[in-house]
Amino acid sequence: MNIWILDATSGIKLLYKSFLKTDIDELLVSGLLSAFNQFTMTEFHQPIESLEMGGFRWIYLADPELSLLFIAADMKTVSTERLRSKLMIIKEAFINEFRQVWANRGKSWAGDVNIFVPFIEVIENYYYDWEDAEIVAQLADFFDLLGVFQHIFNLMKKIIDKRIIGQEQKNIYDRIEFIFNAFQEQVEVKDDKELRKINFSHEKGFSIAEINPYNCDPIIVKNNLVNFIVEITNTIREEIGIGSSLEYFREDKIFDYIFKNLRLLKDLYLDQFLLKLFLFISF
Fold this sequence. Notes:
Layout: E1 2-7, E2 13-18, H1 26-44, E3 50-53, E4 56-63, E5 68-75, H2 80-104, H3 119-163, H4 166-184, H5 187-190, E6 199-201, E7 205-207, H6 218-240, H7 242-251, H8 254-260, H9 262-267, H10 271-278
Antiparallel strand pairs: 1-2, 1-5, 3-4, 4-5, 6-7
Helix pairs in contact: 2-3, 3-6, 4-6, 6-7
């Protein structure tokens, strides 16, 4: 995240803080950003709100009364809403801090801009607080994700043990064991102690409780768990048919679990995946 605070009238940079490792020339970019805003005001009679340029997402917030322009840039993976919310907080804090400076200077920002330098610490405090909060939120989501997958693994084992008997049950377990053994032989798994904590046995089924969210790559773990769920579902379908599979998924509470937890699953981006998977809808 990079932040500019500009005098909207003159385009003079009052403050700049960069948290991104880039080769941006802050003075040159300050002039361009101000020029963009003046152009849209002249030609379209409204300020820029957001744009994508140079691989970044840019957010503009103007304060016409105080002739201030606040601009933030971040990676495109950061949503417009999140970036705007952060910039809004910085804007309000800056105005509260320096409104009197504006008044004392005769409603102008002209003068020694070093007076604004201490505000960089305020921006840093906000930024690192936001980073910590996002890390906590991501960990909480990952704990929830592990819980969802473990519960579905348990429900599927219950179906295999109580609904499917004889050779079909043996075939399913043999195929799952083959899939799990192939998983263990992957170089990626051998080199990752957290992936090695994914366990499977005929007696207990899959266990992922020992994975430490603090020491793993959540995306890699999620992808592997998704693959296991897909493989198990397809194995059951191929051994007992679509009709019986849908019947067991319904009667043994898999659909019930999905619908009761739809909000959580949506937050984890699992809702459509699980519904399509267990309804055998092609992706």
